[in-house]
Amino acid sequence: MDPSKRNAAALHQRVDDICDNLTNHFASIFAAASRPTDKTLAEVAQNELRIREESAALVKDAEDLITLIRELKELWLFGSLNTLTDPGDRQAQEEKALKIAAQIEGLMKKATSSDSVADEAVKNEAKGDEMQS
Question: How many CA atoms lie within 13 A of 21 on its CB side?
Answer without folding.
Answer: 18
